[in-house]
Amino acid sequence: MVLSRAVAFLIGYFCGIVLVGYIYSRLKHQDITKVGSGNAGSTNALRMYGWKAGLITLLGDVSKPMVAILLTWLLFKERSPEGVRLLELYAGFGAIIGHNYPFYMKDFKGGKGIACTGGMMIAFCPIEVPVGISVFLLTVVLTKYVSLGSILGLISFFIQTVAFGEMGLLNVTQAYRIEVYVLAGVIMVMGIFRHHENIRRLLAGNENKFSMKKK
Questions:
Q1: What pLDDT is attached to residue 176?
Q2: 181-196, pLDDT tens digit by residue?
Q3: CA nearest to 110, candidates 29, 28, 17
Q4: Could you tell me if 84 and 175 are in contact, meaning their C-beta atoms sit under 8 angstroms apart?
Q5: Any residues with CB less than 8 A from the CB of 38 and at least 6 apart, and which?
Q6: pLDDT on residue 37
Q7: Are 20 and 60 in contact (CB under 8 A)?
């Protein structure tokens, strides 16, 4: 299973390195990593280029872990049926890493992986999606802070993964359940760490608030 984990991770990584926001900005003869927040994700694309760019980037980023998980399932469903669910999570994790740290970008600068995490939730455990989206949207509506909504959404992902796992709803064998929890925890911590600058601004009271207006 060690090699299988590595293969699943690499499948995810090479799906994740397709930065839709960056590609969109290059078509506009710009570099999204040099404008706005410098982030290659959907929020910065929305702020810099409008709702169409934001939507295209969002859909692309959500799709990457879904494709990775599907490919992993197709590859391992018969070879490792008892561990395929764990491998799916490794593929989703790889997609997030690829999105956050694409090897071809300067300083490995990509996005923050929130949309990718959402896509992973949809593919890996869709029953987590209603609560995750509700937490995110309610937070953004009430506070106008996308970063805070993202952080709370990540926390809800981890809590739900453990809760549903203990309830037997993840379809993960007992042998791999703890590893699934650990990996989900790593994804949560990594996502929160990617927002460390946002957290500092939130604490200082000068974090950017969400707006549909194009810069």
A1: 95
A2: 999 999 999 999 999 9
A3: 17
A4: no
A5: 32, 44, 109
A6: 80
A7: yes
Cα–Cα distance list, 130 to 11, 99, 122, 137, 142 (Å):
27, 24, 10, 11, 18
Cα separations in angstroms, 210 against 21, 62, 149: 18, 20, 11
- Taking the C-alpha atoms of residue 47 and residue 193, their distance in angstroms, rounded to an integer, is 22
The residue among 94, 96, 76 whose CA lies nearest residue 85 is 76
pTM, two decimal places: 0.90
Residue 74 CB neighbour total at 10 angstroms: 10
The letter for the amino acid at 101 is Y
18-24 long-range contacts (CB < 8 A, ≥24 apart) are: 18/60, 18/64, 19/99, 19/102, 19/105, 19/110, 19/111, 20/56, 20/57, 20/59, 20/60, 20/61, 21/45, 21/53, 21/57, 21/60, 21/61, 21/111, 22/105, 24/49, 24/53, 24/56, 24/57
pLDDT(208) > 90: no
pLDDT given at position 214? 52
CA dihedral 67, 189, 103, 116 (to 10 degrees): 30
**52: amino acid identity, one letter:** K
* Residue environment code for 92-130, b if the CB has 16+ CB neighbours within 10 A, otherwise e: bbbbbbbbbbbeeeeeeebbbbbbbbbbbbbbbbeebee
Return d(Cα 165, Cα 18) in angstroms, integer: 31
